[in-house]
Amino acid sequence: MANETILIIEDEADIRELIRYNLAREGYKIAECVSGEEAVVYLKKTLPGLILLDLMLPGVDGYAFCRALRADERTKAIPVIMVTARDEDADIVAGLEVGADDYVTKPFSARILSARVRAVLRRRASEPADKRDVLVRGMIEIDRTHHQVRIEGESVELTLSEFKTLDLLMRRPGVVFSRYQIVDAVHGADYPVTDRSVDVQIVGLRRKLGRASECIETVRGVGYRMRMG
Q1: Tens of pLDDT, residues 1-59
Q2: Measuring CA to CA, how many Å separate 178 from each of 181, 184, 199?
Q3: Do 167 and 161 touch, CB atoms closer than 8 A?
Q4: 3-state secondary structure of 73
Q5: DSSP readout, 127-139?
Q6: Greatest Cα-to-Cα distance within the chain, rounded to the nearest angstrom
Q7: pLDDT digits (tens, 9 = 90+) for 24-34
Q8: Rounded alpha-carbon distances, angstroms, from residue 30 to 5, 8, 38, 106, 224
Q9: Which residues belong to CATH 1.10.10.10 in the chain?
Q10: How many CB atoms lie within 10 A of CB 71?
Q11: What are the strands, taking DSSP E only, across 11-106?
């Protein structure tokens, strides 16, 4: 689960530095915001793999931020670990009730925080992909509920067939789908489409995905797959 982007929302620079240093050493990509308002702007463009959220932020506090995160279809599935000096039972319960996946109190052990991050990401990864409304693979974000695709936050217009093809590949990264399997998944069994038409469709899809097109790999003589990682 290294290569995941971890968003740190924390207004204290020394704590951000401590977290960034330790998680970057484990291979995670790190993004930082100093307030909930700044994080809202970031999330409009990019969905991270996990958020580390301080509660006592300037402006919107961590509870309100997490509540809004869970109320938004686009961000509701992002795992959240609250990292805060508030260590009363009532604070922890309140954090979990607004949607936090875990709660770490300050001062904290960097090793324990890293272990908590790994555990939450493992739980998220074990959730069946076909149950999720929003998926992110590299630069590509696909939203089934709203039938939208974004590349680094920018909307991309796809045809229904292109959307279904991308959805199929993204939900099972690393799995090679033959051209006939793609036709069956997109159009239904016995649909009168040649395997050549799938190649043409993939060409069009890659063109619309731009730099993100490299995520779709051709397996010579077999078909296509979404690249892992």
Answers
A1: 556 899 999 999 999 999 999 999 999 999 999 999 999 999 988 889 899 999 989 89
A2: 5, 10, 11
A3: no
A4: coil
A5: S-GGG-SEEEETT
A6: 64
A7: 999 999 999 99
A8: 6, 7, 15, 20, 31
A9: 134-226
A10: 10
A11: 29-33, 50-53, 80-84, 102-105
Order of strands, sheet of 177-178, starting from the edge strand that comes earlier in the sequence = 177-178, 223-226, 216-219
What are the backbone angles phi and psi of residue 81, rounded to the nearest 5°?
-115, 120
- Give long-range contacts, CB 8 A cutoff, 24+ apart: 184-189: 186/161, 187/161
Is 167 strand, coil or helix?
Answer: helix
Query: What is the third-level CATH fold of 134-226?
Result: Arc Repressor Mutant, subunit A (1.10.10)
CB-based contact 134:141 (threshold 8 Å): yes
> First CA to last CA across the chain, in angstroms?
8
Type of residue numbered 161 = S
Average pLDDT of 129-139? 74
DSSP SS3 for 21: helix
CA–CA separation, 66 vs 64, rounded Å? Answer: 6
Question: Half-sphere exposure of 133 toward its Cβ, with a 13 Å CA cutoff?
Answer: 10
Q: What is the Cα–Cα distance from 85 to 107, expressed in whole angstroms?
A: 7
**SS3 per residue for 5-19:** EEEEECCCHHHHHHH
Range(s) for CATH 3.40.50.2300 in the chain? 5-127
- The architecture (CATH level 2) of 5-127 comes to 3-Layer(aba) Sandwich (3.40)
